[in-house]
């Protein structure tokens, strides 16, 4: 069984994404598929970008040094690419993004995901 401390930690971490539907789904799905709570994870991890600004990655595994960024559709409206220039240890290894699709084919309800 889980301890109440672990349960509270997981709930708090997953709760940080509650206002971002696609991000919440993907992050929750990754955590539940891993099904290994000895592997620590942090949501909304601060990182420094190449332009000296600070951003948040959506999911970070400190033991593995892996950042995962869920690139939601609204990112297409701003910058087509967000460049992360982190030090080598914190370099994002995977970026999960929605591919641009024809809204007439899917009524805007389904957005295919691409993992790079």
What attributes does this structure have?
116 residues; alpha+beta; 5-stranded mixed beta sheet; 25% strand; Restriction endonuclease PvuRts1 I-like N-terminal domain-containing protein; PvuRts1I-like_N
What are the segments in which pLDDT stays under 50 over at least 5 consecutive residues? Answer: 76-93, 101-112
The average pLDDT value, as a whole number, equals 69
| Shape descriptor | globular
Give the tally of β-strands: 5
Could you give the distance between the termini?
A: 35 Å
Summarize the amount of helix as a percent range.
25-40%
The main β sheet shows up as: 5 strands, mixed
- The H/E string reads HHEEEEHE
Number of helices: 3
Strands in their spatial order, largest beta sheet = 1-2-3-4-5
Quaternary state of this entry equals single chain
By helix and strand content, what is the structural category?
A: alpha+beta
Round the Cα radius of gyration to an integer and report it: 15 Å
How much of the sequence lies in strands comes to 25-35%
